Fold this protein.
Amino acid sequence: MDYRDSPEEAQFRTRLRDWLDGIAGTFPTSGDEYWARQGEWHRALYEAGFFGLSWPREFGGQDLPPVYDVILDEELAVASAPPRPGLGYLVAGFGRHASRQLQQRFLPGMINGSERWCQGFSEPGAGSDLASLRTTATRDGDEYVIHGHKIWTSYSDVADWCLLLARTDPDAPRHKGISAFVIAMKQPGVEQRPLKMISGVTKEFGQVLFDGARVPADQMVGEPGEGWPLAMTVVGHEREPSTLGFTARYAKLVRQLASRVDGPAPDELAWAAVQTEMLRLHVRRRLSEQLDGITHGPDGSLDKLLMTWVDQAVGHAALAVGGTRDPELLGAYMYSRAQSVMGGTSQIQKNIISGRILGLGA
Ligand SMILES: Cc1cc2nc3c(=O)[nH]c(=O)nc-3n(C[C@H](O)[C@H](O)[C@H](O)COP(=O)(O)OP(=O)(O)OC[C@H]3O[C@@H](n4cnc5c(N)ncnc54)[C@H](O)[C@@H]3O)c2cc1C
């Protein structure tokens, strides 16, 4: 395997570096300031030709291989620019399950950043056990009426649209009675309540209460009852390493931490350095497999688990070097705790690995 850039990739990297040189330091990379300006950052990336690289050209992407996304992630980290907004799960969900009409209506705005989105899956009583969700969608003429309570909805405060899971058939087996919708967030019957994170961030996510909100029936994504397969597409995508490509960010933080240490490095830092390099090589291998047309099913759970270990190893190193005195390093540690929860907890990944890869249990 040769991991060096091809001539086209090298050219792309140079063009990107030049652009980043011009805007370095313009956008905040963390905290509430980052979340407040994320939409603006998305549009700046898109307009410069650096967003949606591996997505379909007909909807505003560039049809490039996923390695370009990794180059983008690497260069953004090197330039201390904010990460690219993570919307791949939506594009994947729409690509596989939405009608052509819905794809044409929604994918361009999603990709170019003119319309903001959120994911309304989790509920107070339905996170790991998503199939027990209780939000209902009841048909009323050409519309469905939504009642329910979503939680941990990232970007709910700024979203124009929500990819919502709701129960349309209470009598069907629980995985089969769920459908997916594109629902407008700015309408009567939708209330958004922000949630403050332990890292201090108040802008990232909220609870969303639906009380009689309405959605046109033709904004159902896929067929009635196709909500569960769509959810599996989405979470499967969230677990792929090329979309979890924060390795460059981890490596940079590890180098910064190392430069702050006088004398012997703490064990946590050495471990984080080893883990980061392991993940970098692992992501490279997965990308090269993708280029060879090899697709992964439940293996995504291994990737997600590895990525979580690395994220949290780097978080521990940040805490070991900065203690609780440095708010930025403390924030990095705090945020790393979320990694073993978001996109499916580590315990759930282990269940999937034991059942679907190792064939253990019933
Ligand atoms: C930063 C962040 C962003 C998020 N963004 C979104 C979003 O945009 N949209 C959205 O819908 N959701 C989002 N979530 C929610 C996320 O998907 C859920 O938090 C996650 O699925 C876990 O669900 P839960 O919090 O209800 O925990 P629970 O499912 O209640 O789990 C509690 C504990 O029990 C363990 N557990 C549960 N079931 C099992 C089992 N069968 N075997 C072993 N252990 C088990 C879990 O591993 C965990 O440790 C986000 C979460 C975070 C942290």
Summary: The two ends are 39 Å apart (CA to CA). The mean pLDDT is 92. Residues 118-122, 127-128, 152-154, 205, 338, 341-342, 344-345, 347-348, 351 surround flavin-adenine dinucleotide (CB under 6 Å). The beta strands are 117-120, 136-140, 143-154, 161-167, 178-184, 190-195, 205-216, 220-221.
